[in-house]
Amino acid sequence: MRRLWRLCLLAQVCSIFIVQPWTPGSAAEPPPGPPELRLSLHEAIQAAIDNNANVRLLKERIVAAQSAASTSLGALLPNVSGFMSGSNQTVNLAAFGFPPDRLSGLGLQRPVTEPFDVYNARASLVQNIFSLSLIQRWRAAKTGVDVAGFEAEVTKRDVMATAGLLYMEASRAEAAVKARLADLELSQQLLKLAQDRKQAGVATGLDVTREEVQLENTRQRLLVAQNDHESAKLNLIRALGIDFNVTVTLTDELTLATVESQTPETALSVARENRAELKAQLTRQKLASLSLSSVTSERIPSLSLNGDYGWIGLKPDEALATRSVGLMLSVPIFDGGQREGRISESRSRVRQELIRMKDVSDQVTLEVRNALLTLDSSTQQVAVAEKGLSLAMKELTFARDRFAAGLATNIEITNAQTSVARARDNLIEALFRFNASRINLARAKGEIEQLF
């Protein structure tokens, strides 16, 4: 019985741990993860240019402006049309001034004729020979294409700068996560040190508890940093116009680059030459002036040519060729004051564009000077932050040695930990400000393409 009992128990164990042979499709394959996209700063900028909705909308606006210019040009070119018609009709001759006695003399018993067929095939031509208003309107439409082009360039550069800044923000958030991981590793090491010192009888439970609190605080900050990192990447994905299901991995980090010093006067000179906003505003002024000229030119007489040629007859084989050619001189005299109202409105638009030109110029000056100030300040901040981090690490080393030697409690260590975390944050923020100010300065000078 004892042997039989052992055999039954062995059979149950084997039935539990036996491995079934694997066959294809016997187990569900793990679902594939989201695709990974490794992005450098340059690649992020290119993706933003290609996919951003605002850039694509401005490209369509250029197409619309070109179509409007073609429409204005069509008014200056020959307009040719043709038609063919065939009809069966009757005519009331009395309606054309034929009295009844004359109709009877023509052998007609009633004023309405018998039904008859009319076939007509004709081509007509209208050509504006001279119209200064139409010429100026066409020039204004061509200038509108230039305005749309400059506005598209402004939007493109803004998108490049925005994408660059969002990339830097994501890099800052990633650096913050790495800093918190380093803080967490340091806290774990210091907690083990406190526990070892307590076991050796040279530290108290308060020292261990203090390090445990510090460790949990670091974990909390790590969670916040990870959330900020993911949120920053989502903002970057939105600006780039790519799929949100893609896992973005940044390949560039926050670094300190060499920047040539420059005076505000030099930077402003470059900005006035390169900024698309200034060129766009100058073109808008030209557009407003041409629109005003187009309206005022309506006072000038215009000359056009009208003509038609075709065949007409009662039967198609009996149709005869006929034509008409004429010149029409149109002289505006009075339109109830409508023209003067449009002239006054156009003059107001010219003055508005002059006011905007001053505002755009002042905005460019402000952006250049602010970018230069921020760049200079952030460069100094990076140097100070690097030194501060070095000193904080030295303070932490001294505090750890004093605690390990039993010369002090770990209050000095926790204070030094806080100083190290703050110094790391200061360095990350200083590097972010430096790189962001480089982007802002390049955009303010109109050299954003050269930076990337």
Automatic annotation (TrEMBL):
The keyword Zinc does not apply. Keywords: Cell outer membrane, Membrane, Signal, Transmembrane, Transmembrane beta strand, Transport. It holds the Pfam family OEP. SUPFAM superfamilies: Outer membrane efflux proteins (OEP). Residues 1-27 form the signal peptide. It is found in: Cell outer membrane. One of its GO terms (cellular component) is efflux pump complex. InterPro entries: OMP_efflux, TolC-like. Belongs to the outer membrane factor (OMF) (TC 1.B.17) family. This is Putative Outer membrane efflux protein. It comes from Nitrospira defluvii. The lineage of its organism: Bacteria, Pseudomonadati, Nitrospirota, Nitrospiria, Nitrospirales.
